[in-house]
Amino acid sequence: MKTNKSILISGCDGKVGGAAARLFRQRGWNVIGLDLTGDCPSADRSYPCDMRDSKAVLEVIRLIEGEQPLDAVFHSAGVTLETGFEETDMKGWQRVMKTIFGGAANLCRAEAPYMVKRKSGKIILLAPDYRWEERECIMEASAAGMLHGFAKCFGAEVAEDNVLVNALAPNVPIDLAALTETVFYLADQDTYTAAQVISIGGAKKQEVTSDEV
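User: That's the sequence. What structure does it adopt?
Assistant: Structure tokens below.
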């Protein structure tokens, strides 16, 4: 059933963003995607945007809001480095921080004023929990940890205007079904949950049997 609700998903061409886009479309939402290439096949329409570029984010949000007000925003844009802590230079650190944390801040700065003016809106930030991940991922974990604090502080600031900001902290590896259902619940329902970091259990790692080795 088609609704008149719209959600913006950053990182829409990624695994998490694409899964969320498909779920929302299946349930009648209008899905607008943002990604570096602008190629988001799971969205109704999409735009190219570098989430690290504050001016670009402001401009694309102005364009989208001019066409249709957004009911919700889901920031799922991220980046994964293949190097460990000691092998990663400052350029790599900045790339991770500017994409995960900086991208979220840019998106909130651009969209929140519209939602505050309407006294309505949901902002959901993906900030995974890497504590059980076997590979070294201190950079991604650091950026996600910053988002936890940001969601609580910024969420408390705009809650009085009925703009509900929350961070989702799914364990890695991510259970896509559980995560996307939680995103949908927070976006679709008027739960008045705000300024929270919500933990979600991770997917079970597939065990390798002797026949598969």
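The helical segments are 15-26, 54-67, 90-118, 138-158, 176-188.
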